[in-house]
Amino acid sequence: MMGDRRAMPSLRQIGASCAALGLFFAPLPSADAFGPPPRPQVLLTAEAHLLAEFDRFAALSDGTVGVAVQDLQTGEIQSRNGDTLFPMASAYKVAVAGRILSLVDAGSLKLDDRLALDPALASEGGIAWMFSRPGATLPVSQLLDLMLTRSDNNATDVLVARAGGPKAVSDFVAGLGIHGLRVDSDTAHLLYRAMGINPQSGTFQQNAGAARRADPMIQRRDVRDLPNMDFMLDPRDTATPLAMNQLLVAYESGKALKPESTQLLFTIMGHCQTGKLRLSGMLPPGTPVAHKTGSLNGVGNDVGIIGLPDGRRFAITVFVMKDSRGHVSRDQIMAQAARAAYDYFLFAPKRRVALNKLNVHV
């Protein structure tokens, strides 16, 4: 009996054996329990990363930064302060060019038509010297080039007048179904408001000179590149980043202009001479960029179309206002925004395929 009792397993041994069998037959933990999250979750963070980058470089300004980007192939849009109104400054000249080229498309204006400037509107710099000569004119094609590549204010105001005035430019934009972009002034009167003066008569140079002598703050804002806060809060001559992008997309899609005029517009914008450290500042050498800048005290803008290595393109608008840190930091904001968007959209095809398989819409 003693021998048989020793041969039988104890209750403890039986319990241990069952436990071992239970571990053997239990399902193994999934691989996800030990590895990274599923790949789709990683892909979905791309948007959050882009927006976080927008927030990061926006901190370079003590003012307000707005960014809008749109993939021209998929239509995907990402933005920061996309519906906030910003002073366009010279970025409004993109709308002026569209209105002028629409007149060319309609046959009521020719590119070789010669136009003159009202001497009373002639502002400092650029081709202002030409208008001291009676009867001085330039062809529309050259005025467009000066306006878009060198941001010449005098060339712009010749074109604004021929366009039918600021309201005609605004009506052209609204006719494209775009809301949130308005043009209320030619450049001379835009600068008057930026300086905070309201002259009744005299030339621009006379009025601006008298205002600077009478109000030291105007000169101080110029020297220190400080914003006029009253001007920043004025809704006139403003646009949201999303609305400006819509205008660019209307051009690119052929909705606004005939193919020849669209090609001319982007060809000229592709030779822009201003703001070389803005949208283009951090992009790979040779990246095609067709853009237009805008600058005022405390304001820095750049808007345009950027090409990717595979031939795709995206629209981008970067607006900065109420900034007192200077143009260097504003240029860095625009350059970093363009590079972040470039990298984001560069990998969009793979990302788009993965998201479509999951029926996820962005």
TrEMBL record:
InterPro entries assigned to the protein according to its UniProt record, in alphabetical order: Beta-lactam/transpept-like, Beta-lactam_cat, Beta-lactam_class-A
Catalytic activity: a beta-lactam + H2O = a substituted beta-amino acid
UniProt enzyme class: hydrolase
Protein name: beta-lactamase
SUPFAM superfamilies from the UniProt entry: beta-lactamase/transpeptidase-like (SSF56601)
Record-level Gene Ontology MF annotations: beta-lactamase activity
UniProt domain Beta-lactamase class A catalytic: residue ranges: 66-320
Assigned EC number: 3.5.2.6
Protein keywords: Signal
Signal peptide coordinates: 1-31
Taxonomic superkingdom: Bacteria
One Gene Ontology biological process: response to antibiotic
Similarity field: Belongs to the class-A beta-lactamase family.
